[in-house]
Specification:
This protein is an alpha/beta fold and 513 residues long. It has helices at residues 2-28, 38-47, 51-57, 67-79, 83-111, 116-132, 134-140, 146-168, 176-191, 195-210, 217-251, 261-268, 275-290, 294-320, 334-347, 351-376, 383-391, 408-417, 452-460, 462-465, 477-480, 485-491, and strands at residues 399-403, 424-426, 469-475, 494-502, 505-512.
Length: 513
């Protein structure tokens, strides 16, 4: 029996090594030749500013706390501001996260009293799912806070599992697990403007873990004091959110409809298409296994709270206040969900064990297939293609107009990556002129679209009207240039000489008649 278990352990290690390689490949594939899209370019733009700008200016027009931009800036000060260097922060978090998720699943199985073989199996299945899960893979490739949030949420899940075990064994709350949980809670609050949603889920899960046994007065004091300290340190970020939220609500261009949830939620929980059937099978197995005893029911409740509450609150927020990005912002919910599915696969016995293994294998293989399709699909916004098209037509005296102004960010980033120094004017500018360069992106306020008289005045300005050829870059033109107002203003004395369209990118060449 010992020899058989040793052989199984070696097979799991070999399988884990193969999965780690596959996970690294799908995250790193073409990462050095994929251009930054709009939001990534904004992160890089912010990280290129001074600490004073990040903590004094950004809070005056952004709902997001400047913590992530500061973290990215510190990273670039050490590793540089090249494309790969700036993406490396997310990649590092994305490569570490599957190990933490596997650690959480193994610790959960140990806390349930499962034998070592099933503990290893739970960790292996969780690692397999996390290494190839679509949202975890995709977010790790972006210069955005989401891969860091995924890693922090994974650490918080592991800490909560530790707290539940400490409490179920009657030990005192104060300890490493509770300290890590509080630190992760603070980070989740500061990494994104929807931090309170994550804090609500983490707080409820922690309360469930805390109630695992009768609390001593000292434990209650630690519980309350710890959460009060987190709330106190969050107050500056809360002030930013409350100050900017009204403007964000009024100006956001996002829309929300319940019908879109059928597309968003399966992607969010890493089970698009018919993969959902395999996930349902594993969920049923997990509920059947965990519902047998008190410890399992408590763990089940914690994982479901962590996986569902942020999504439910974001949907409620979108319906009642203002729409929010669901698929990107909420990707950390995949962490407790994958732990739950892994426990379903590892905890099933007899014939159900074969069903669980088949469902888990089906999920992993289909995740790998979807990851391959994503890599073959090309970049989300093809800015390098746009630059390559312009290179064949652009003259030294040409001028590029980016409307709305956010379009200047990814274009200028692509030009920087290609070593080109072309004139780019962001329209409108300044809004307001906080930036020493004369303008700054409007960020969470929404992209500003100017009325027709203002656009016509810009088109007649000497610095534009006297240029022989201009290139108009419109990003999402149907939304931000309704009725082609700016295009028509420029066309009064010009003729169209060429056009490049790729997704939301629309570049039009206009030459004086």
């Amino acid at each position: 029996m010992a020899m058989k278990e040793a052989q199984e352990a070696r097979l799991l290690v070999a399988g884990g090594l193969l999965l780690a390689i596959l996970g690294a490949v799908v995250r790193l594939w073409h990462v050095s030749v994929t251009p930054m899209w709009l939001d990534e370019a904004y992160s890089a733009y912010a990280a290129g500013k001074s600490f004073g700008f990040l903590w004094v200016v950004v809070p005056r027009y952004e709902t997001h706390p400047p913590f992530y931009y500061t973290l990215l800036k510190l990273w670039t000060l050490v590793f540089g501001d090249g494309l790969v260097a700036e993406r490396a922060l997310g990649l590092a978090a994305g490569l570490i996260a599957p190990f933490v998720i596997a650690w959480s699943a193994g610790a959960a199985a140990e806390g349930l009293g499962w034998e070592p073989r099933r503990q290893r199996l739970a960790a292996f299945v969780a690692f397999a799912l996390a290494a190839l899960a679509i949202p975890l893979v995709e977010m790790s490739r972006e210069v955005r806070p989401y891969p860091v949030m995924i890693l922090v949420y994974a650490l918080a899940v592991r800490a909560l599992i530790g707290i539940a075990r400490v409490r179920s064994e009657g030990r005192r709350l104060a300890g490493p697990a509770f300290g890590v949980y509080l630190l992760c809670l603070e980070w989740m609050l500061w990494l994104h403007n929807l931090g309170p949603l994550w804090a609500a889920a983490l707080g409820l899960a922690c309360l469930a873990a805390f109630l695992a046994s009768r609390a001593r007065p000292a434990d209650g004091g630690w519980f309350v004091a710890g959460h009060m300290a987190v709330a106190l340190f969050y107050l500056p970020a809360l002030d930013i959110l409350l100050d900017q939220a009204p403007t964000w609500v009024k100006s956001t261009w996002l829309t929300f409809g319940l019908g879109g949830l059928s597309d968003h939620l399966p992607v969010l929980y890493a089970v698009p298409g018919w993969q959902g059937l395999a996930a349902v099978v594993l969920l049923i197995l997990a509920v059947a296994v965990l519902a047998r005893e008190v410890r399992g029911r408590r763990l089940l409740a914690m994982l479901l709270v962590l996986a569902i509450v942020p999504t439910a609150l974001s949907i409620l927020l979108s319906m009642t206040v203002a729409p929010v990005f669901i698929t990107r912002t909420l990707t950390p919910v995949a962490v407790p969900w994958l732990v739950l599915l892994a426990l379903g696969a590892a905890g099933a016995r007899d014939k159900a064990a074969w069903i669980g293994a088949g469902a888990a294998l089906m999920l992993v293989l289909n995740m790998l297939a979807v990851d391959g399709q994503q890599r073959a699909a090309g970049p989300f916004q093809n800015w390098y293609g746009a630059v390559a098209w312009l290179q064949q037509r652009h003259a030294p005296d040409d001028l590029i107009l980016a409307y709305p102004n956010e379009g200047a960010l990814p274009l200028e980033r692509a030009l920087k990556d290609k070593g080109l120094d072309w004139r780019v004017i962001a329209v409108p500018r300044p809004v307001p002129a906080f930036d020493a360069d004369g303008w700054h992106p409007t960020g969470s306020r929404g992209v500003i679209s100017l009325p027709r008289p203002h656009l016509e005045a810009i088109a007649r300005a000497p610095e534009i009207a006297q240029v022989r050829r201009v290139w108009l870059l419109r990003l999402g033109n149907t939304t931000y240039d309704p009725g082609d107002m700016f295009l028509n203003a420029l066309r009064r004395d010009r003729r169209i000489t060429g056009r490049f369209v790729a997704g939301p990118i629309d570049i039009i060449g206009l030459e004086l008649r």
